[in-house]
Amino acid sequence: MELWGLVLGALLVVIVGYLYVSRLSRQRKPQEPPLDKGPVPWLGHAIAFRKNMVEFLKHMQAKHGDVFTVQLGGQYFTFVMDPCSFGPIIKDTKRKLDFVEYAKELVLKVFGYAPLQGDYQMIHSASTKHLMGAGLEELNEAMLDSLSLLMLGLKGRSPDASCWCEDGLFHFCYNILFKAGYLTLFGYTEDKEQDLLQAEEIFVEFRKFDILFPRFVYSLLGPREWLEVGRLQRLFHEVLSVKHNQKKNGISNWISDMLQFLKEEEVAPAMQDKFNFMMLWASQGNTGPATFWVIFFLLKYPEAMQAVKEEASKVLGKTKLEVNQAFSCDLSVLKCTPVLDSVMEESLRLGASPTLLRVVKSDQSLKMANGQQYLLRNGDKVAIFPYLSVQMDPDIHPEPTVFKYDRFLNPDGTRKVDFYKEGKKIHYYNMPWGAGVSICPGRFFALSEMKLFILLLVSYFDLELVDPDTPVPPINPQRWGFGTTQPSHDVRFRYRLQPTE
């Protein structure tokens, strides 16, 4: 026992010494950004960053300016906060800043999927083919059928459908959009009633994974939570397995084409199952939460709701449903809703907070808009957090914390795209989908499914907050940097199908 005690003691001294030396070994070189290694060896600022990313970055920006390097869990991240200087990072034609390497590490850890060399190009190619143009129209038709099934039932409108129902708005939006998206992308069996029951079970399990997701990415789970994540991963690998999907009809061409590519590359079926889990998350992890913010702001601001309803009535016409009738809609109207487009863009400005990350592949210089040049070190990560640097910038968006449904509308009703900072027009004025090589390839489908759901809600249903004076719920600080934010608590609301008379 004494010998083991001496060995463990010596090992502890070595580890502590290594951490201490590694902290001191990194020194700021000439022309590098300000370096802030934090109070704890190796961890650096990781605890403060993970506790509240927004408040941490505000503090760092006030302390160091628009460019700074911080240590987070043994890694060094250089944050660029000036939106006028994003161009060299986002465009990066010389490929010295790599996105794919970081993405590979993340999807392997979270979904168990080991990407192929050509996966990135394959996903973007399939998304361009099937999530835009004619392919998108086909998906929209399937989405309309799925929403009708979920919102009206197997036989369409029921005789007692005009009764008021109460639910949490976040749960309601997330639940319906997730299930509709899942069924649209991964198809149905011959028993649609059973499909609906299974979709509900999958949503319940998906939310368990979703809640653990931020701390899972940061490796902050407890022992039982690690076991739960493993269980959930195995469950989704099974439910979304290629074997299971062979029993279904109507699997989307988007999913089918990507799986065909993996099959031709001789990817094992078990790895294809993990790919399906990744695509379910990528396609459905943000649309429900994003729609929550849109509907909440519409309910909170009557003038916005009235403007959207008037536009919906204009493009959809009569929207009364008879008994046993399903939704029908000319889906071309999704291209003719500038007011709703502005409402959604404003809601995403307030509610989306992605982090754009690139790995520095070799020492290089970053030239800022003001002419200042900084050296970026090989192996570090460069980060952009547009929520703070763009979406909450009062110079670009006056009164940035206030919801203005027409912020992205010109006086003539067309989309507004001209925004300025310090008198100069800027290209990146709202970045809910990311930008450059990491821009969300499924954004057009995500927007379409959200718009369709919202149009159906405001046109066919009566909606109201249980408490009209309820304030905007605070954002769950754990969700900063992970796409669409989520509220710290749900908001109760009532809904019913509009009476037929």
CATH superfamily (homologous) name of the largest domain: Cytochrome P450
Mean pLDDT reading:
91
Query: Spans of 5+ residues with little confidence (pLDDT < 50)?
Result: 1-23
Question: What number of structural domains do the residues give?
Answer: 2
The number of helical segments is: 18
The share of residues in extended strands comes to 5-15%
Q: What is the CATH C-level name of the largest domain?
A: Mainly Alpha
Pfam family, one: p450
Binding site for substrate: 109, 286, 381
Binding site for heme: 440
Protein name: 5-beta-cholestane-3-alpha,7-alpha-diol 12-alpha-hydroxylase-like
Report on the architecture of this protein.
The protein has 501 residues and is of the alpha+beta class. Helix content is 50%, strand content 10%. The chain folds into two domains: 2-113 and 355-384, Uridine Diphospho-n-acetylenolpyruvylglucosamine Reductase, domain 2; 119-354 and 398-497, Cytochrome p450. It has helices at residues 2-25, 46-51, 53-64, 87-91, 100-111, 119-130, 133-152, 169-186, 192-217, 223-239, 242-245, 253-264, 269-284, 287-300, 302-316, 338-351, 386-391, 443-460, and strands spanning 35-36, 67-72, 75-80, 97-98, 165-168, 356-360, 364-367, 373-376, 381-384, 420-421, 424-425, 461-465, 492-497. Strand 2 (67-72) and strand 3 (75-80) form a beta hairpin. Helix 8 (169-186) crosses helix 9 (192-217), helix 8 (169-186) packs antiparallel against helix 14 (287-300) and helix 9 (192-217) packs antiparallel against helix 10. The longest helix is centred in the middle third of the chain and has 26 residues, at 192-217. It starts with a helix and ends with a strand. Mean pLDDT is 91; it is low at 1-23. One of its GO terms (biological process) is lipid metabolic process.
